[in-house]
Amino acid sequence: MTKIRATYSGLIGLATGLITVFTGLIFILIVTRSLTPEELGTWGLIGGLVTYVIILEPMISYWSTREIARGTESAKTAVFSSTIFSFVGILAFLLIAFLVSEPTDTSTDILFFAAIMIPFSFLNRTLSAISIGWKPQMNSYGLLIFDISKISAAIIFVYYMELGVYGAILSLVIAHIPSIIFLAIASKSKLKNSFNKKFLKNWLKRAWLPSYIKSTNIVVLDILVFSLITGSVVGLAYWVAATTIGTAVRHSGQITRAVYPALLSGGPREHLQENLMKLFLFLFPFMALSLAFAKPALFIINPIYDVAATVVVFITIRTVLKIIGSALSSSLQGIASVDTKESGYKEYLKSDLFYLPTLRLIRKGVYLGSLAIGLLILVQTDTPLMDMLVFWSVIATLTQIPFTLYFYYLVRKQFPLSLDIVTIMKYLVISIVVFGGVYLLMDEYLEYEIEVLKFIPNLIPYLILGISVYFGLTYLTDKATRQLFNSIILEIKQKNN
After folding, report:
1. What is this structure's pTM?
2. CB–CB of 69/135 below 8 Å?
3. Measured between alpha carbons, how far is 111 from 396 in angstroms, rounded to an integer?
4. Between 254 and which of 17, 87, 163, 456 could a Cys-Cys bridge form, CB atoms 3.0 to 4.6 Å apart?
């Protein structure tokens, strides 16, 4: 079994997540300031199509993470197998791109060119899955390298060379390369064994399960549904901008990511409660920050998108619910042991490895159906585009609530979970008071400058103020926060000695 330090890896993931919030914003800033709304909508459509094709990759990486965490040396087989599957992914992407290009009025040349992202994405994801299985913090470093490389490439291809969507595609492709190299070097001890067709045979035999799990990405055709029903990709530009801000809160979920491989490797179930409390410590200020800074953040991306601030609010709430639900459901999958023995289809169908994805599939089916019906009605009544986007974000949020609550119910049955509600409410109240105050100050005194280099310096003091006051108050009023900060300082001192 691999010994994984869940809290240590989680804190590394959180730290890199904080950095990638800003690196991701820089990238989207370059893209949104350089692309027209139509081009940005096309970029959003490409992202959705790539997600649908990625369903093939977890057929390998899903099992490799679980096996490596339990000590099985299947990494090299996973890398070779993923490379082979990526070519199937390219063909699938080209077919989907051909089918959607005409209904969405999108150039087939751009969509076909985007297919070059597939093999790099497959390989990067597989190496990430390998690192998660034994050293989750390495995956965080790989993500950071990817984001920094992405910015450098975007400056060249999107900003200076003005290659538009083509430049954005090239930026992602090139960014994958240093990340892949780093993850491969970091996992070299796991890549020493030879290719073993027995592993591949077992993965293919059970390929139906990860394919079923990721099939929820196919069901959630929200981007495609919106563009097909409205007949335009312009609305997707506003959605991409709002999603960039509203989903930034997801990085706080890194604090619990290492719980899954830790449980797989036989770690104590108490890991979940410990890391959930740390999650709330960081989740609530992230949420409050996203809500308070929605308008100025959209203004930075591009002033034309700041009207989508209401959309950001609902996307943020939905993201918070998804983070909590993901932490809970991944823990349930971490203690599932059906794949440690010779199990048939019936055993898998009765396990949480199948049951939990089925719940997600139901949720996303309800979400997609509600969205499609609502949009069809709104289009018939000539509803303004922005109102349709708000409706989209509201539906996405409402359909998430009952399932997150149910995941909590399931976890309570199998984990020694006794959350400190008083402390959690303390984090929430401090977040609301602090960032609510910052919002009022910005509303009164913040000057909106069209030039980014003038506006960002005006905004940074409010950001520093909110973060400093929040963590200052939690440090003074919460013993667990003081212990966490002290342990971080101790860890840094030990590394330097």
Report:
1. 0.80
2. no
3. 27
4. 17
